Amino acid sequence: MSKEARQFLPQILWYIAIWSVIASALFFLLRYRRSVLFSQEKYGALLTTVSEKRQKAVDPCQFFIWGDPPNAEGNFAKAIFYCTPDKKAVNSLDLSVLSTMSYKAMLNEVGRINGFSAEPVFNGGDWQCFSDREKITDFDAKIKLKSRVECFYHFNQAEIKKVYAEN
Amino acid sequence: MPKIKLLITICFFLLILAVGAVLRWRNHTQVPLPGESTDEYSNSWVGLSLIQLGVPVGRSGLVGYGGSDGRYINVDRIYSTTAGGGPLGINKPWLDHPPLLPLITGGYAYLNGGMVFEDATARLIRKPMLVIGIVNIALVGIFAYLLAGPEVGLLAATLFATSPLVVVTSRMIQAENGVILTWLISLICLFIYQKKNRPIYLWLAALTAGTAISFKVSGVVAWLSGAAILLSAEKKTNSRRFWETALFSVISLSFLALFFVYGAAYSFSTFTIVWQSNSTRPYDIGFGSLFNLLTTTKITVSKYLTEGWLLVGWIASLSIIGAKNKKLFSFLIVPLFSYLIIFLLMGGSAYGWYRLPFMPFLFVASAVILAEGFKAKEKLVPVLLALIPLGVTVHKLGEIYNLMPFSQYWRYGLPLVIAWFLFGRNEKLSRGLYFLIISSAIGANIALAYSLTPEVYLKIN
């Protein structure tokens, strides 16, 4: 055995021995942590909980989801909010993210993304919603693919007609 | 070095670090635009989920996962600006890359109250990158100092600190910034080891080269270049070269093996499929990629920030190859071309940040050639080299500010400068003019980097 081999080989063997202990410990530690910490609920919450630090929207027209989902392949819908005659927000949503394919789930998801509660929209009164110009009476109904869901705040019928005439 | 010169050098070095820090800090939350690369968030989400769920969760575009969980995560309100209308494809366990950078930025977010993915805003997660970016300036300076002396060290650090492209890309949560950090430390340790022959430096070089792999698999370049340097070391027996390289390789490559252990702990089948699909990404392999590398300077896939320094760096590197300086060849050219091999094999030209590991070496090469210009009698070539980045940066500044009133000075000044260095024989004046040109180029760097607000960033290319 050469002088260099006598110098370096023990270092290499020691390192491999220590590395094997560390690698084994890491393997079992990672497995243990996963088994203790992971749950589907915590996973969902980590991804979809709205940050407390994020600015809340003052109305559904303050923020929007810009651009059409590129990989939706027809499985999308638009949610358009009209807060005043000259203030609206257009949102495109890939419907694959919804657990139930209803208008309610869609508007709730748009509300979560943009930071507002969609509850007032479902309660009637101030808001009127239409799907491809047909009034939505049951928000639990199945949403139509590629539909335009349009919700108007404090609009009378004439104003809604005017919006549709312009579009 | 005399004490007074040492003191001035240290003061100047600290000033460079301060300027680099200010440039990196200014607008760091807005430029690059949040969401321009969602990988920045994804890297931090992986760390955040590893800490909280015990499983790495992140965004991936790789087909190896066999589909992903589409989610709208509106961090920094990216859906109103840069993200487009589609949900982010989330994968668990996310095994695209090793988890060191995710643990740094995700860990930082967690320690600062980040509990959910939306909390990982650019304002929060880019902070650790600023620290890495400033340390990288120092490392470039130290590395260049060891290779070519204090003047080159200061110039290289200045160029690296003020280059607008480096300023912007160093803010990004991309693993290549960590690769630069550890690779440079590894090379510095190797350099000291070759000088002092103390085993601790070989161990440190190997451990930091391994850490580079823990940032990204392309960090294997630190092992490749280190092994090449050790194998080609002068005044050593073949046996010594072999055993030093063997120790260095076992230690540094053990970190790659650790990534396999990490993958196996979650799902070895997913890990191998992701590894395979990572290696079959459609890259721009071949001359097209090389041509793009030499002629364009990118930040993301489609966002360019044209800069002349890198072209100067490539030209300077070729000049250093011709000069046959063993030290510069081993520690500058070998690492540069080692990464070129990795880049062509693994990286290609798709993303701007794949090019980051070239930059320290290109800036050091530029500094070597420009500093030699001070001493050289014939200054025309270094002057022409310095005029490339100066011209490009002034052109960019012209897109921001009205420089038309100065255009005639530039138009007539430039031929006069070239004529002076062709025919002028007053050495003192040549040296002064040369100093002025390089100072102007650095000044233009600082002006452009300082002016990069989101509006300007969107406007220029």
Overview of this structure, please?
By secondary structure, chain A is of the alpha+beta class. Chain A has two domains: 3-47; 76-166, Beta-grasp domain (Ubiquitin-like (UB roll)). In chain A, 42% of the residues lie in helices and 18% in strands. Chain A is built from five helices and five strands; from the N terminus they run ααββααβββα. Chain A has a five-stranded mixed sheet with strand order 2-1-5-3-4. In chain A, a hairpin with a 2-residue loop joins strand 1 and strand 2. Chain A is elongated, with a radius of gyration of 27 Å. The relative contact order of chain A is 0.12. With 461 residues, chain B is mostly helical. Chain B has two domains: 3-27 and 130-459, no CATH class; 39-125, no CATH class. Chain B has a three-stranded antiparallel sheet with strand order 1-3-2. In chain B, helix 5 (127-148) packs across helix 15 and helix 16 (380-400) runs antiparallel to helix 17 (404-423). The two termini of chain B are 43 Å apart.
